[in-house]
Amino acid sequence: MNINQWVDELFEFFDEDKDGAISRSEFVELIDCLLQDKGIRMCESIFNKFDVNHNNSISKEELKAMVIELAL
């Protein structure tokens, strides 16, 4: 599976309300899964870093950038 496929599946799974963006609460679940309990403060910091347009949600492209930087 390549990075684009992985991000697509990750995005679809955590976009629980299927609105095309990962909300702050959905993001907390995503980070908890990816970083395995490293804390809410880290989650808040990461969310703010990757929500580049500051709209309080993570787009698929923002998620891709985050996965590339943090998980690979």
Characterization of the model:
- The protein is 64% helix and 6% strand.
- The chain has 72 residues and is mainly α.
- It has a single domain (3-70), classed as Recoverin, domain 1.
- It has a two-stranded antiparallel ribbon with strand order 1-2.
- Helix 1 packs across helix 4 and helix 2 packs across helix 3.
- The radius of gyration is 11 Å and the shape is globular.
- This is EF-hand domain-containing protein.
- Residues 2-37, 38-72 form the EF-hand domain.
Question: Which keywords apply here?
Answer:
single chain; 72 residues; Recoverin, domain 1; two-stranded antiparallel sheet; globular; EF_Hand_1_Ca_BS; EF_hand_dom
Secondary structure class reads mainly alpha
Mind telling me which CATH architecture this is?
A: Orthogonal Bundle
Distance between the termini: 14 Å
Q: How many helical elements?
A: 4
Beta-strand residue fraction:
5-15%
Shape category: globular
Poorly predicted regions are none
Oligomeric state as shown: single chain
Count of DSSP E strands?
2
Main sheet: strands, sense, barrel:
2 strands, antiparallel
Rg from Cα:
11 Å
Fourth-tier CATH superfamily name? EF-hand
Mean of pLDDT? 86
The largest beta-sheet arranges its strands as 1-2
CATH topology category name: Recoverin, domain 1
The portion of residues assigned to helices is 55-70%
Q: What is the total domain count? A: 1
What is the H/E order?
A: HEHHEH
> What's the CATH C level?
Mainly Alpha
